[in-house]
Each structure stands twice: as structure tokens, then as C-alpha cells.
Amino acid sequence: MNSLKRLRDRVDHVDRSLLELLTQRGRLVKAIGAIKEESGQSVFAPERERDLLARLKEKNHGPLPAEAIESVFREVIHSCRNLQKAFRVAYFGPQATFTHQAALRCFGRGAEYLPVRAISDVFAEVDKDRADYGVVPIENSTEGVVNHTLDMFMDSRLSICAELELPIWHYLLGNAKACRGGKGLKTLYTHYQPLAQCRLWVESHLPGVAVVEASSTADAARRAAENPRGAAIASRLAGELYGLDVLASRIEDVTHNFTRFLVIGSALPARTGRDKTSIMFSVKDRVGALFDMLVPFRKYRLNMTKIESRPTRQRAWEYLFFVDFLGHRSEPRVQKALALLERSCVFLKILGSYPRSE
Q1: What does the alpha-carbon distance between residue 171 and residue 239 come to, in Å, rounded to a whole number?
Q2: Contact 262, 162 (CB under 8 A)
Q3: What's the CA gap between 201 and 59, in Å, rounded?
Q4: Which amino acids are annotated catalytic?
Q5: What stretch of H or E contains 17?
Q6: Where is 215: in which H helix or E strand?
Q7: Which terminus of the chain has a smaller tally of CB atoms within 10 A, N or C?
């Protein structure tokens, strides 16, 4: 018993030391915030946050797992950042959508969140300075790119400041008692994206159930909560928010199902050495134009991670290209590659250089 008391006393001592260190960190961060405000620097520094979390991961030797350490320090980072500035963040809502979860992971619970009804509204809130940053989905590993997000970059002045990849786990949510564990279901509410990601499961387990499209996963959960014989495909968070039971877990057809999200704003993150750059451009309509487009990336050994094309909406069969590649706009080889690329383009726009998601 004495040994237990001694160990608990030592834990109490460590806790007091942690509190003192957190207080010191908070004071230092406030001083840094004052310097940043005076010099006009951005408080949101995803490149530094990424490096800090990476260093802690390397130095951690247990017994706490890396995920637990990252979770604790993310909250510390978010709380200290809020001492510098309270962010207002717009996201493609409503509450409990996967985009909401991505926003929480980026900015923490201390930020002020503004759910909006459309991706275009996220851009508008940030562009009109009603929000400091916005969070939007850009692509899913199963279903591909979110075209509406790409289209918004055509006319927007905003930059990509950060990216985040979240594992997407889908659940069948409903009233377990009324639905008899799922056997009494009459209606399935779902957004088209999760339905596409769970199509095989739905066809196999819910034959004959009427499918009704919802504007988001959270909207699906809300509508299911109003219908005892209805269910929704959504996240656990949505189920908790609307008081729904989990009727089936992990119903996505592909186990490794991820969605990539972008943080948009006016900040220009510094180089970290593990960066990604996104650009958009259009090429002249001539033979070999697409081949010439690839030459600068090969010449300067830049690894392209994504390429998409979208109609310009100005002329029939005229296209814009969106490219992601590894590297930062401040690197000499990236600058040379972009200068060479621009010679073959009608126009070229850098959408942002930012720390790439791990």
C-alpha cells in the first residue's frame, strides 16, 4: 500500500510539473503571437506544427503509443494557438460531417466553426474575410476527385494552406428497437458519395430498401432520427449527435478508404522539405501540347502525384489541368520547372505550396 501511495505521489508531482510547463509554453506562445501580429505574420503555421509532431513521433519510445502522443500534443498546439488568435473556420457542413471532423483535427475545439451549405460558400466566407480559413474535401481514395472544389479554384484568389487525409469509416445508423437491428428498415438516407463507397454492402444487406438522397452525411442522420423505420450512412459522430444506434459498423466496400481535405486561406506556409505544390493551367490547342506539359516535371525530377482535367466553361472542348507534385514553390528546381511550363501554357496559376499529409 505504501508503494502505491509513493507512486501516486510521484504521478501528482509529474502532473504539477506538466501544468507548470504548459503554463510556460502558453506564455511563450503569447509572446510569439505578439511578434507575429506586429510583423504581419500568419498565426497558423502548418509547416511548424507538422515538424513538431514528426519530431515527437521520432523521440517517443513508449509506453504511450504514437497516436496518443500526437492526440495530446495536437490539443496543446491548438489551445496555445488560440492564445495567439481565435480562428473562425468555415467548413462544408453541417455539424458531424467528415469535413467537420477534418476541421476539428486541423484547428481544435477552441476555434469558432461556421458550417455552410455548399463548397462555394466556404470559399465565399473566407474570400470576404468572414472566416480566417476554410476546409473543403478534394478527393476520395475510392471515388476520386470532388469536381466542385476544383472548379472553385478557377476564379478564387485563395491559396491552399494545408492538407489532411482522414480514414473514412461508414456506419449504418438508426433506431435499433424500431428497426429490429436493421431488419425492419424501410428507408435509407444517404449522401451520394458514401452510397458510392458502400454500394456493394447496401446491395447485399439492404435489398428492397428505398434509397433517399441527403445533402450530407449529417443531414442523412438527422432525417433518419425523424423516421423510426429509417437509417442513415454516416459517421459515429453523427450518430452521437442525433441519438442513433449503430446498426452495422465499417460498411465501406474498400477497407483503406481515405478522403483528402484542403485548408484554404491567404497564408503561405514555409518550406519543410516534405511539401506538395498544387497548380492549375491551360495549354494551347496544338499537336504535342500535352506531351510538352510533362517535360518540365521530368527534366527537373518532380514527382507528380495527381493530374485532373476540367472544362474551362468558356469554350467547348477547352480544358484546365490541375496538377499536384512534390516540392515547394521556393525551391530553385520547382521555380525552373514552372518557368519552363509557363512557356507552353495559356495561363498558369500556383494554388499553393504546403506540408504534405503523412
Answers
A1: 9
A2: yes
A3: 42
A4: 259, 261
A5: helix 2-39
A6: none
A7: N
At which residue does the C-alpha cell 470559399 appear?
Answer: 123
Q: What is the pTM of this model?
A: 0.85
| Residue 165: predicted pLDDT | 93
How many Å apart are CA 88 and CA 54, to the nearest integer? 26
pLDDT of residue 31: 92
What is the C-alpha to C-alpha distance for residues 164 and 357, in angstroms, rounded to an integer?
Answer: 5
For residues 106, 107, 109, 110, the Cα torsion angle rounded to the nearest 10 degrees is: 170
**Contact partners, residue 84, CB within 8 Å, separation at least 6:** 29, 30, 32, 33, 36, 37, 43
Element (H, E) at 241: helix 236-242
Contact assessment for residue 168 and residue 139, using Cβ atoms and an 8 Å cutoff: no
Residue 279 β-bridge partners: 323, 350
The Cα-based distances of 10 to 16, 66, 243 in angstroms read: 10, 24, 41
The pLDDT tens digits of the residues spanning 65-97 come to: 888 888 899 889 888 888 888 899 999 888 889
Measure the CA angle with vertex 287, ends 283 and 289; round to 5°.
30
| Burial annotation 88-120 (CB, 10 A radius, 16+ → b, else e) | bbbbbbbbbbbbbbbbbebbbeebebbbbeebb
- CA 259, CA 162: separation in Å to the nearest integer? 14
